Amino acid sequence: MSDLDMILEKTVRSYGRRQIQAGHALMIVMARDIxxxxxxxxxxxADPERLGQWVALPEGDLRRGGNYSLPxxxxxxxxxxxGPRLLTVSWAREGxxxxxxEFHLTGEDGYTRFELRYASVRKGFxxxxxxxxxxxxxxxxxxxxLDVLEEYLAGSIPEEPPGIRFEIESGGELAQLFEARNERWxxxxxxxDQEHTP
Length: 198
Hints:
Layout: H1 3-9, E1 11-20, E2 23-34, H2 38-46, H3 48-54, E3 59-60, E4 67-69, E5 75-82, E6 86-91, E7 99-108, E8 111-120, H4 138-153, H5 172-196
Helix pairs in contact: 2-3, 4-5
């Protein structure tokens, strides 16, 4: 198995549907086993100061029922917070459909099973991006979020936190990985469509 295949196999990908505040949503689900204890992983995503080191420093009423905003224009509400296992937030940004992002954490033997669910009211998720446009699609984009989280937990703190919408330049290793992940998401979407087409 190649190094690229090993990286691709780290994430389990699926689609689903769920009801969110904005309506009946399509959902992408990705799960990954992260080699750090659940308390450390939870703190990285739920503690504002730590989140500010690798994503962006949130502002607002940072408690269940409160609202948050990020410097990149992302904003929303904290819908559920049951540490260290569940965090659900709404996510909105100008020009984008309101969505919900949910983190499910399960700890075992010093590892954390991290499941990220991104749900949005739409017909489908993009799995390719225009060349040179700052690559981003739902599945592959959120996988990069997990990569940065793992790097942060391993001690790598970015000089400038990238925010929620990571941009990956065309060309190079990251773009290659991005496209390989997009291909996996295309297959996942095709399988989901076949299972749910009358």
